[in-house]
Amino acid sequence: MPAVTADTLTLPRLPRLPETTAWRRAATVVKAQKFLEGEGFQVRRPFPGVDLAMADPFLLLDHMGAVEYAPGEARGAPWHPHRGFETVTYMIDGAMQHTDSIGGGGLITDGATQWMTAGAGILHNEVPPQDMVAKGGLFHGVQLWVNLPRTLKLAQPRYQDIGAADARLLSSDDGGVLVRLIAGDLAGHAGPGATQTPITYVHASVAAGARLAVPWPKEFNALVYVLSGSGVVGQEDRPLEEGHLAVLGPGDALTLRGRSAWEVLVLGGRPINEPVARYGPFVMNTRQEIIQAFEDYQAGRLGQIPAAHLGSTVE
């Protein structure tokens, strides 16, 4: 798993928290369901599935892989529109080629993140690079959808390219956990991602027996999703294994411990608490706004496919 590795003994350590801390408990654990997306690649999706109010401001989490593609097997999601939210694509192994209707995009690979604010609307194309299609290879990544509040639904599209070397690297207080802070704040350390909706996004590599304990904003929810391995969450040691998501209850901090080598995402955000109307690639506040998004897409107001890509399929 090449997503940014480092010697944890050389990194800044998170503070040791007292055992009297108000720890968050695992309120719900769900197993990700399998779906086919795009041209037919499989994803594991823990939400939607869990009550969306518990995940707010997050809308969707797609775990892609890990899978070893044979030559000709790699698939992507050809041209399709979005409006009203953000997509955050984090590649752990392999690569994804992204292009769009406003000239943005690029290659996302081995620990890099691309943060796309769709806002008022955009068309984009997410496919494996041609050398991976031709030769095959390991592919492993995650795409997170982050909702936007009503006031930002029609903001101008924008991008952040967060290179693998840009992630803020930290260590747990016991030195057994490598923490990659992609966005938000963790015990006073800031991640490189600039968020429209306040969130924290962490990828942690937890050694067997090691413990991660971090303060967590009271106003944020807290989710733990397992990419691989197994461990426990909360002071009550709730088991959590690959493909499972824990939704944690209220409190001042969260704690988790690895039983084996354990790869987890730790996510949290301030709930937007607004009505959600969603259909396919559009997430707005009302049904009428969804209808308007379809009309704008059909009229070409969400952008046009660049001439060099006109042979590509639009979903």
UniProtKB/TrEMBL annotation:
What sequence ranges are listed for the domain Pirin N-terminal? Answer: 41-146
> Where on this chain does Fe cation bind?
H80, H82, H124, E126
SUPFAM superfamilies named in the record: RmlC-like cupins
InterPro entries to which the protein is assigned, alphabetical: Pirin, Pirin_C_dom, Pirin_N_dom, RmlC-like_jellyroll, RmlC_Cupin_sf
List the molecular function annotations (GO) for this entry. Answer: metal ion binding
Top-level taxon = Bacteria
Residues forming coiled coils: none
> What's the record's note on cofactor binding?
Binds 1 Fe cation per subunit.
Required co-factor(s) are: Fe cation
The keyword Iron is annotated on this UniProt entry? yes
Q: Which parts of the sequence belong to the Pirin C-terminal domain?
A: 201-302
- Keyword annotations of the record: Iron, Metal-binding
Keyword Iron: yes or no?
Answer: yes
Alphabetized PANTHER family for the sequence: PIRIN (PTHR13903:SF8), PIRIN-RELATED (PTHR13903)
Similarity comment text for this entry:
Belongs to the pirin family.
Q: What is this protein called?
A: Short-chain dehydrogenase
